[in-house]
Each structure stands twice: as structure tokens, then as C-alpha cells.
Amino acid sequence: MNDDRRTDARLAERIRSGDSEALGELYDRYAATALATAMRVVSARDEAEDVVHDAFVAVWRKIDRFDADRGSLRAWLMTVVRNRAIDRVRARRPNMDLEVADERSLLRTGLNPTWEAALGRTAASDVQAAMADLPDEQRQAVELAYFEGYTYREVAELTGVAPGTANGRLRLALAKLRDALSGSTAAPLGSSESMFSEDTRR
Amino acid sequence: MNCTTVNELAAAYALGAIEADEERRVVEHLSTCDQQHSDVRSMIEAATLVPAALEPVAPSPALRGRLMATIAQTPQEHAAPAASPARQSREPQPMRSAEPRRPWWQLAPLPSALAAVALAAAVGIGAWNVSLNQQLGDRDAALRAVASADAIYPAQGSAGSGLVIESGEQAMFMTEDLLDLPADQLYELWLIDGDNAPVAVGTLSDTDGVALVTLERDLGSATTFAITVESERVDAPTSEPVLVASLGT
Question: By the CB < 8 Å criterion, does A158 face chain B?
């Protein structure tokens, strides 16, 4: 377990025990990153700060559901922030249930500790450079999906392509980002936008 | 859903960009499948890079204090078995996000979030009271109000939190953490009886320290207490409430 992960695990344990100062320390570690994400989605600073506030309150309330051995507290927090930010512009996701979204977000926090350590050392400028290197349509697909709250099917409609193509762009974009910033320790990934089964081609 | 489909949806899943039903099926598959699904793990990790591309933005200094004040009154799910209904509700959200088509005071029943808010605040009363008891001077009146209360209703919203205190024929609103307003705005207090129009029962502009406002009428049959931000005292609210208490629960 790397230092960041260890520190977060300790914070999670303290938060679980009801130590509000530990939540304050978590806030000090990640509030600026969280606010950047919230502002990217909702734009207005006041509203973004409300999102960050609500996200940390959610972490406080639901900390018992988080398992530090299986997930990254940072990753969970960021998805909780993103869920709330998208909820603020929920006209885009009218059927989104925050409780369900949070619960499922917990399942998407299982980062490899080595990856998490690398993430902690990665400068925003490096990630920006990797994003800039993506083909326009892939970068656009990722931004519409993550920051605008659209599903891949909606991304497909917005960009005038088939759902399989939009999904393929997301796959390629994430694979390239990962490769660019890690030298790729990932499993082999699909390389064709059309690599898609009947289930998702509809 | 089979392994191939799950792997194909890995990126969209990792980015939180699939339909709820598809996500449910992916989760179900992952929770029961014997395969490693390294594609999914890979994509989940890669997705963490997307927000990492943003330059951090320092929050305003007041945000940390606001968060800690909320935390002080918010029970944790595992520490508050009596609050278990809150697990089914969303945490406090400003009512303005509900985008009601009718005037907010006619919304019935009250948004379920308020039930969680009320519950959360009720659990927090004890701690707040202890805190108050440790402070004297200006807070004596507040302490006396709490001590002599017949009923206390927690109020919470985007502006902070407070208590509606019913004592005999008198009702008061007490708060110690309402957000400061610009000099040209004030908080206006309302009582609402069912679908009837809100009745103004006072204003509040000085939010330093503990504020205690005696309402201009008793609670009567009012079902809701609310506070809006106005530029001056008005006869009917012109904005969404920033703080709400459900009375009689």
C-alpha cells in the first residue's frame, strides 16, 4: 500500500469512528481537486462549492460502506463529486438516483495501489498533454461523457455516430490516456471502434 | 449480459456513462463472474485520469467551516441506527434544485430529503446543546429558549441550519450558523399551513453568533417553517427557501 493510500485508509478509519477532524484533513487533501471537477461540470463557483460540500457530507455519512482494502478513497470521493455535479445539471440525467449512483460508484474505486501512487504523482499538465494528443472525436466523447454527464448512447446521438462507435471512442481514449501516462500496464485493449457485440450495437 | 459485452462497455462504465439499466447489469455480472475482467479494472483506473487533467481550484475559505458545521450535525449512517430511513433518501439539498412547477410552499408532500434533514438535525441537537451550554453571555437567551421548549423542530437547508422552538404560545427561531448575507439582503421567515400562502413572521439580518428571533405569531396549525432570502421584507416570498423545517413531526 503506497503512502497516499495508507494515509487515506487511516483517514477513512478515523472518519468511520466519527472523527470530524479527519474529514477536515480529507477535505484539505482533496477539496481543490474536487472543486475543479465540480466547476468543470456546473461552471458557477457557488454551485460548485455546494457540490463539494455535499460530496464531503456524503462521504461522512456513508463512510461505513467504503472498504479501504478494496478501493481508493480519492477515487470514491471524486465519483461522488461528479455524481452530485451531474445531478445539479440533472436535466441531462433525469433518471439519476444519487443513492444508487453513490452505491455503484463504490464499485468503481478498486484502483491498483501502484496506479494510485502514480496518479498521485501525475501533474495535471501531463494529463492535459495526453488529453490534447487524443484525436478530437475521442477527446470530445470523453468530455461529453465525464463532464457533461451524457451516456455513450447520448454521446452517439450528439455526435451523429452509432452507439458502438461512441463507445469505441471512449475505449480508445481511455486506453491511450492510460498508455500515455503509465507506459501501459493494462491488459490488451480493443483497437477498433467497431469491436462491439449485438448487445451494445443497438 | 456476458463477459464480452461487459468488457466492451468497460470504458463507458468506468466513466459513469452508461444507462442505469446497463450499469445494473454490468454490476450484476461483475459481482458474480469468475473472470478477472482486467479490461474493466484497466478502464476504471484510466478514468481517474480524466478529472486529474484539471488544475486544482482552491475553495473559498468559508467552505471548510460550512462543511465542518454541517458535519457536526450530521449523523453517520452506521452510527445512527435510528436514522436508518435516511439511507433511502438523499442528503440535504437546497430545495431550489427541485425546480418545482408550483410555488414551493404548495409542494406536497414535502420532498423526502427533508425527512432525512430533519432526522439528521434532530440527532445533532444534543451535541449542539452541549456546545451551547459551554458558552454563556449572549447565548443565555438561546439556552433559556431551548430549556423551556415544548417542542423543537430542526431546520436545515443551503443557508445552514437552525431550530424552530415552540414554547407555550410563543415560537422562536434560533440559529448559530446561517450564512452571512450581503448588506442589501435579509432572511425572511415564513409559516405555511398546508397549501395556503406563506405568512411572513419575521426577518433576520444579523447572523453573527447565535441569533434568536421571536416569530410574530405562534405556530398554530402551520405545517412548515421556511426562510427565504429577500431584498426587503415582502408579503409573499420571491425566491426558493434556503432553510426549511417540517413542523409537527
Answer: no
CATH C-level class of A1-121: mainly alpha
Domain A123-202: which CATH number of 1.20.1250.20, 1.20.140.160, 1.10.10.10, 1.10.150.120: 1.10.10.10
Q: Is the pLDDT of residue A36 over 90?
A: yes
- pLDDT at residue A22, rounded to an integer: 93
Per-residue pLDDT at B65 exceeds 90: yes
> Alpha-carbon distance B161 to B176, whole Å?
8
Positions of CATH 1.10.1740.10 in chain A: 1-121
CB contact under 8 A, A127 and B52: yes
Helix axes A113-121, A73-88, angle to 10 degrees: 70
Q: Is B221 on the interface with A (CB under 8 A)?
A: no
* Minimum distance, in Å, between the CA of residue B148 and any CA atom of chain A: 30
Strand ranges for chain A from DSSP E: none
Task: Tell me the residues of chain B between 62 and 121 that have a Cβ less than 8 Å away from chain A.
Answer: 63-64, 66-68, 70-72, 74-79, 86-94, 97
Give B87's contacts in chain A (Cβ within 8 Å). 99
pLDDT band of B120, cuts 50, 70, 90: very low
Domain ranges for chain B: 3-52, 61-246
In this prediction, residue B143 has a pLDDT band, given cuts at 50, 70 and 90, of low
Q: Is the pLDDT of residue A15 over 60?
A: yes
On whether the CB atoms of residues B110 and B224 are closer than 8 A, the answer is yes
Q: Tell me if chain A has a CB within 8 Å of the CB of B241.
A: no
CA–CA separation, B27 vs A148, rounded Å?
23
